[in-house]
Amino acid sequence: MPDGGGYRHFHDELAVLKQKLLDMSERAESLVDLSVEALLERDREKAEAVIEADRELDRIEVEAENLAISLLALQQPMARDLRFLIGAIKVSSDLERVGDHAVNIAQGAVRLVESRAMTPAVPAIADMARRARAMLSDALDAFIRGDGALGRAVGKADDQVDALHEGIFRTLLTHMMGDPRTIAPSLELLLVSRNLERVGDLATNIGEDAVYLAEGKQIRHRYDEGVA
Amino acid sequence: MTPDTRDREINEGRVVVERFSAWFGGTQALAGVNLAVAPQSVTALIGPSGCGKSTLLRAMNRLNDLIPGFRHVGRVFLDGEDINAPSMDTSVLRQRIGTVFQRSNPFPRSIYDNVAYGPRLNGLATGRELDHTVEHALRRAALWDEVKDRLRESALGLSGGQQQRLCIARALANDPEVLLLDEPTSALDPVATQRIEEMLYELRRDLTIVLVTHNLHQAARVSDQTVVLFDGHIVEIDSTKRLFTSPREARTEAFITGRLG
């Protein structure tokens, strides 16, 4: 057998990287929560906390990517380890983007607080946020555990989030046509919905990375369907 | 026809191992191995120590026959001919299938005589034709430029990496169809290793190459097909690209990621 000591060191480093991804995921999920709370409660402090906390997420992303790159260079991993490291780089980038979407939502919340305009009630936004957050959590579990079935399930759940986004668009359109004073706040809410829909897409990407990790299959854009 | 100008059929050098099992005394080394090696390709045999990969390599030119207590069942074909058939002349077989070992083993003679040894023995060339054969073999082994001015000096004065390339040139001088290499770079430094790997990349254009290596990255770099052996059984054969990124077998995965045992 090859040198076991070197491998043990490598596996310890992989565990550190996994922990960083879990940490990022936890932060990204709570940023989505907090940004939507800030929006629904018109809470400026919470919105500013989201903007502040996103910097930490950016920092961990760079750390995770650096660690993955150094492991690729020094350990030249193969098979599952290789797929994990390539996936980790993509997942950390996706989680960082989730943070950016939370910041977009928080900035929208601040603008709504400042405008003091009448905002249409759109209960579906809270539902959408809950689903997007659950998808993110499942996607990360799927990636960390290498669970291909759970990874695929995340993609299915995204259909519901997309449908909610469609519904919200129609609701807001109705408001805007009925009362032009709601146009500005409705556009803000549409942006929020759009950002949540993107969080769902990023969770779907992570779910696809989990499938590649677990099964070695590229399911993005149905690429390997003809082959498999 | 001189050996190096002989036009070879594109299909020459196909090795097929069929339901091959082998024993050394009471110990089974290979169990029901089936393997097809395509011409003009590099096949890497990998697996933990004692898995049977060297035995399998040596079965391809009957080197195991020399070991007391060795017996086998099953067949090995070279271009459709059973190499263990009574009609097979082992000296002809070993001219067609060259072998390079882990430790370079040049004869204590001149560089020229080392390379000329096989063609002289097999009566393939003499005189100027032999000079030409020697030069061609040394060029294919990427050694010519380093030794062309000291062909009459002792081969033992060469560096380890040069000696290994000399042994490869010695095998190539017989114009083999197949080249078997048993951990050819395990005693060499990274620069010498890279030279040999680059040379294999060139040689595969007209040779069938089978390589036993403990260096998984070497297998990944140089081979087209990889064969994984455990306890005398083949557990997986696949394109090298597929095997090192998404192996199908859990034991392959465990072996190449260092999680075995």
Which properties best describe this structure?
heterodimer, A: 228 residues, mainly alpha, Methane Monooxygenase Hydroxylase, Chain G, domain 1, 84% helix, elongated, B: 261 residues, alpha/beta, Rossmann fold, six-stranded mixed β-sheet, four-stranded antiparallel β-sheet, 10 helices, globular
What does this structure look like?
The complex is a heterodimer of chains A (228) and B (261). Chain A is an all-alpha fold and 228 residues long. Chain A has one domain (4-222): Phosphate transport system protein phou homolog 2, domain 2 (Methane Monooxygenase Hydroxylase, Chain G, domain 1), CATH 1.20.58. Helix content of chain A is 84%, strand content 0%. Chain A has 6 helices and no strands. Chain A has helices at 4-40, 44-75, 79-115, 124-145, 148-178, 183-215. Chain A is elongated. The relative contact order of chain A is 0.14. With 261 residues, chain B is α/β, with parallel strands linked by helices. Chain B has a domain at 9-105 and 178-256: Rossmann fold, CATH 3.40.50.300. In chain B, 34% of the residues lie in helices and 25% in strands. A 6-stranded mixed sheet of chain B has the order 6-7-8-3-9-10, sandwiched between helices. A 4-stranded antiparallel sheet of chain B has the order 2-1-4-5, with helices on one face. In chain B, α6 (160-172) packs parallel to α7. The radius of gyration of chain B is 18 Å and the shape is globular. The N and C termini of chain B lie far apart (54 Å). Mean pLDDT of chain B is 92; it is low at 1-6. The chains are: A mainly alpha (228), B alpha/beta (261). At the A-B interface, α1 and α3 of A face α8 and α10 of B.
